[in-house]
Design brief:
The protein is an alpha/beta fold. Helices cover about 30% and strands about 30% of the residues. The protein has a six-stranded mixed beta sheet, sandwiched between helices. It binds adenosine-5'-triphosphate (ATP) and magnesium ion.
């Protein structure tokens, strides 16, 4: 088995080429390509520019964390990547298909085929109900721990063998021991070649991914490999061998 560090990471130069070829279909290997992605919200006449032109390219098998302060656009971007929402401008290519101009029905089909969602546990029901998947949420006995529930959520997300596993704050309401446990599950999936994208505002959690994209004010502020991120953040690298 490859360790995650042996799976090749896309390079900055490769990403630059693929994100600037406006209108051209990227090779299928690029599971996610966004070009100039914008999303505005109309708050009763006042426009909030949640995303102001996001260029991101993620290749199959990559394990990416998206970080950024509150309000920087992380969830907005995840909703677009997850085909739960459509942009106001820009392109979004998912597994070689232009999805930014698809209607809701087409979007739902792509979403069901290509995306597995893992949410912060208490948000899961609400989010699934928004896309009329509420009946997929099984009511589990309350004695399941947060970690167990999150494992169930991950297993469920992988049932259809999605191209991408998307996780928005997957450890958001878990204690640190349980968070580490969930990070080991993600690491195992990444080692098996599952493309994983997770949003987190915790540097310690982001440090588990092989690549960290930082959003600031609706734009990509930096996009770097794990080691660079760990050094810049001044944190200790995660110890994945630790047993709980
Ligand atoms: N449905 C919405 N209607 C109006 N404004 C919204 C909506 N969703 C997000 N916004 C605004 O868009 C901006 C980006 O929000 P977003 O939720 O994407 O940030 P975030 O990085 O996920 O923040 P957090 O870390 O708090 O989850 C914020 O200014 C937010 O208030
Ligand atoms: Mg958010």
């Amino acid at each position: 088995m490859l360790t995650t560090d042996e799976i090749p990471l896309s390079t900055t130069a490769e990403r630059q080429v693929v994100t600037t070829e406006s209108g051209a279909a990227p090779e299928k290997d690029w599971v996610i390509v966004t070009r100039g992605l914008k999303r505005d919200y109309d708050m009763g006449g006042e426009i909030v520019h949640a995303l102001r032109g996001v260029d991101i390219a993620i290749r199959r098998n990559e394990y990416v964390a998206i970080m950024g302060p509150s309000g920087s656009g992380k969830s907005t971007l995840m909703n677009l990547i997850g085909c739960l929402d459509t942009p106001n401008a820009g392109e979004y290519w998912l597994a070689g298909e232009l999805v930014s101009d698809k209607d809701e029905d087409e979007l739902a089909r792509v979403r069901n085929r290509e995306i597995g969602f893992v949410f912060q546990t208490f948000k899961a029901t609400e989010a699934l109900e928004r896309v009329q998947l509420g009946d997929r949420v099984q009511h589990r006995p309350n004695e399941l721990s947060g970690g167990q529930r999150q494992r169930v959520a991950i297993a469920r997300a992988l049932v259809n063998q999605p191209a991408i596993l998307l996780a928005d704050e997957p450890t958001g309401n878990l204690d640190s021991t349980t968070s580490e446990e969930i990070m080991r599950v993600f690491e195992g999936l990444a080692e098996q070649g599952q493309t994983v994208i997770m949003v987190t505002h915790e540097a310690d959690i982001a440090a588990h991914a092989r690549r960290v994209i930082l959003l600031r004010d609706g734009l990509v502020a930096s996009d770097e490999k794990r080691s660079t991120f760990i050094k810049a953040a001044g944190i200790a690298p995660p110890d994945l061998t630790k047993k709980t």
